[in-house]
Amino acid sequence: MSAAPAQPTSAESGEIDASLKVPVIVLLAFAILWLLGASALGVIAAIKLHTPAFLGGCEFLTYGRVYPAALNALAYGWGMNAGLAVALWLMARLARGTLPSGGLLIVATVFWNIGVKLGVLGILAGDSNSITWLEMPAYVVPFLLVAYALIAAWVLAVLRRGTSPYLYVSQWYVLAALFWFPWLYSAAQLMLVFRPVHGTVQAIVAAWYSHGLLGLWFGSLGLALIYYFIPKVVGKPIRGYYLSSLAFWAYAIFTAWTGVSRLAGAPVPAWTQTAGRTASFMLLVPLGIIVVNLFLTLADGLGALATSMVLRFITVAAVVFVLCTVRGVILALPSWAGITQLTWFATASDYVLLYGVFSMAVFGAVYYLMPRLVRRAWPFAGLIQVHFWFALIGLVVGVVSLSLGGLQQGRDLANDKIAFADVTAHALPYLQAATIAGIILTLGHLAFAFNFVKLVICPQHRAASAAAPLPAALTVPPPELQATAR
Amino acid sequence: MSAIPSNSDPRLEAAAASDDSIQRVHAGLLHTKPEPEPGGYALAPLLLLGLMSGLILGCCIFFVQNRGAFDPLVYNGHLNTKPGEGPVVLPPEQIIAKGKSLYAQTCIQCHMADGKGVPGKYPPLAGSDIVNGSEDRVIRILLHGLKDPITLNGATFTTSEKMPPFGPGMPGGLYNYSDAKISYVLSYVRSDFGNKSALVEESKVTEVHKQVAARTTSWTMSELPASP
Fold first, then answer.
1. Contacts of B88 in chain A (CB under 8 A)
2. Would the CB atoms of A281 and B58 count as touching at under 8 Å?
3. ipTM surpassing 0.95, yes or no?
4. Which chain B residues are Cβ-neighbours of A471 within 8 angstroms?
5. A269 contacts in B (CB within 8 Å)?
6. A89: containing domain
7. Cα–Cα distance between A264 and A335 in angstroms, integer?
8. What is the pLDDT of residues A6-62, one digit of tens each?
9. Bridge partner residues of B157 (DSSP)
């Protein structure tokens, strides 16, 4: 690349954001469309759990199809598009490299989304292959892998072109996640769909993939954003930063092993379950360091929480990360796994990481990065508030109701004096509460989407912003971070 | 410290630090441990070291106690061989599965996949008086092997090879099967090919093994204890 143009000397100068504008907006637009689609499918699935007759006449919308469709739309539609968008933006900024040309990246994004659309429609049409998180039919898999590689390659390209001599902790997590996802996805597809392994090894591979997708892809990207935005908004360096590399490696090694712990009591070799449980316990090491890193830094500037919506989203993500890792440790204890296994409790645990950590962090990041890409302010401050509170309340209500419902369900199932029909009946109020949570979340997503659309395409908002002078937040670079002796 | 920059407008989100300075400052911090106060000591690294050491110790103990003998057929981590508690106890279907896999590695060469052997050369296991007869006798044959000629169910079998010894340390034996393995393979042949005899316990093999520990040669038909 001898003819490469000179790279900007500062990430804040606007050249990098300008080069990323179209591709990141396209990725985010697809992500938000999928978020709305997944919300609608998810609410339908949630209603069907307590009111089975709802839309009962429609073959495409039976529970067994609409639930995995919602799950896949959320993970691969919203999660992958949004994850790649923030990964690209974060990497370009921190590596200080512009994106050479957006054309191919946009084509790859369109291909990825065609693949996901075929996959989700395939599930609704009955082609699901019934492996959790991998329900999309085999014919879209090559499509998705190629499109992913073509998108992720650009994130590596901006790192390669960048001039920054430093690698910040967020870049470690982004870079690792970029390689972990194709490894997890291709290995799981090969061993479960294309050349299925024999017997219960399939269950081990499926558990390894589920946990890996959640922890190594969504969890890593969430951590990358949290590590970036806390010093960015608080204006203080990460406390105990020298420990963060230990946390990174410990998180990487142990998360990859934790998957099998979700097979407690299954007919898989006992030592694999034990290894998974042990790895879950060992996650307390990176967790302890991450708590020191993040929360001591937050404590240095708690005042910022009063004004910054970004920091509120990020803080929720950080708190949920801690709670959900602790939850993983508790669930790995054999006595707990016996109750919670195969109940709503386990289902809730998966959503906590995907929604509470990853999605919350991405929401925060999008509220920060979009004004810088389009060089306009968000049209409605109120809708950001609405989105935050609805997301938080929906998350808490959903997780608490599914967890309590799951505990009730697990205790009932273990009690041979309770008929199975009664077990289901006892769970009903919790499932109804979960539906309400889903509706609250969906309202929040609508506020988010409306604000996004207005920001990007509304001509009046555009004209009004163009008429006024650019606000200082977009023109004056942020102050220098002061290294404090600690 | 300077005041946090005003961030009054959530529609814009002013940042409090530039990306460039975040990276520069943290690159320095990555290799700088906080210095304790003069005369004091830093508590955090000690606490972390304690937490990690405690966790590693606890996890090692947990792993060893629940390792299930690292056996792919043990599904329950509590079924471990602990000192003084005797061998791993497997459920019958796993014993037979293990025996079947041993059979497929060795016995199958002469006794064939259907357990019918080769007429005149290798005796059948299906419906055999010896296989379905006394446990003592068939354990002895497995441990030390059996010389020609063999009479079974009224027929005579003669080959250039004898039934080889499977017990550990037998002269001319290549297999060194433990008592457990012998019990698995015997349990299998006594429950397949139409045979419906009881499984052979590992403790029974050990008991017989002790009785014949001094023997170094293969059995002949006449030396063996009489039929059931």
1. none
2. yes
3. no
4. 9, 12
5. 68, 70-75
6. 14-166
7. 10
8. 677 787 878 889 899 999 999 999 999 999 999 999 999 999 988 888 887 888 889
9. B150
Q: What is the pLDDT of residue A3?
A: 46
Minimum Cα–Cα distance from A234: chain B residue: B16
User: How much is the mean pLDDT over chain A?
Assistant: 91
Residue A28 belongs to domain with CATH number: 1.20.120
Query: CA-CA distance, A176 to B48, in Å (whole number)?
Result: 25
Percent of chain B whose pLDDT exceeds 70: 88
Q: Residue A451 falls within a domain, yes or no?
A: no
Of the candidates A242, A269, A307, which has its C-beta nearest B75's C-beta?
A269
Instruction: Give the nearest partner residue to A278 out of B12, B63, B74, using CB atoms.
Output: B63
Q: Is A227 within the bounds of a domain?
A: no
- Facing residue for A10 by CB, picked from B20, B48, B55: B20
Q: Residue A109 domain-assigned?
A: yes
- Is residue A324 within 8 A of residue A356, CB to CB? The reply is yes
- Indicate whether this model's pTM tops 0.90: no
- Interchain contact A51–B (C-beta under 8 A): no
Tokens 């949570």 belong to which residue? A437
Mean pLDDT, residues B59-66: 90
Count Cβ atoms below 10 Å from residue A129 Cβ, excluding itself. 16
Out of A176-180, A332-336, A410-414, B10-14, give the one with best mean pLDDT.
A176-180
8-state DSSP, A267: S
Asked if the model's pLDDT at residue B81 lies above 60, the reply is: no
Nearest CA in chain A to B62: A278
Chain B residues in contact with A263 by the CB 8 A cut-off are none
Domains held by chain A: number:
1
Q: Is the pLDDT of residue A222 over 70?
A: yes
Q: Whole-angstrom Cα distance, residue A377 to residue A251?
A: 37
The answer to whether residue A156 scores a pLDDT higher than 90 is yes
Reading the block at residue B48, the tokens are 């972390």
Place of tokens 């708190």: A319
Q: Which CATH code for domain B92-219? A: 1.10.760.10
For A393, how many CA atoms within 13 A lie in the half-sphere containing its CB? 15
Count Cβ–Cβ pairs < 8 Å, chain A vs chain B. 200
Interchain CB contact of A7 with B (< 8 Å) = no
Mean pLDDT in residue range B183-209? 89
Backbone angles phi, psi at A241, to 5 degrees: -60, -30
> For residues A283 and A208, is the Cβ–Cβ distance under 8 A?
no
Interface residue of A197, A278, A378 to substitute, partner B, most B CBs within 10 Å: A278
CA distances from B223 to B73, B150, B161, B214 (A): 38, 12, 19, 15
Among A42-56, A70-84, A118-132, B156-170, which stretch is predicted with the lowest mean pLDDT? B156-170
Q: Is residue A226 part of a domain?
A: no
Give the phi and the psi of residue B16 in degrees, each rounded to 5: -100, 0
User: What are the residue ranges spanned by the domains of chain B?
Assistant: 92-219
Query: Which residues make Cβ contacts (< 8 Å) with residue B191, sequence separation at least 6?
Result: B96, B197, B199
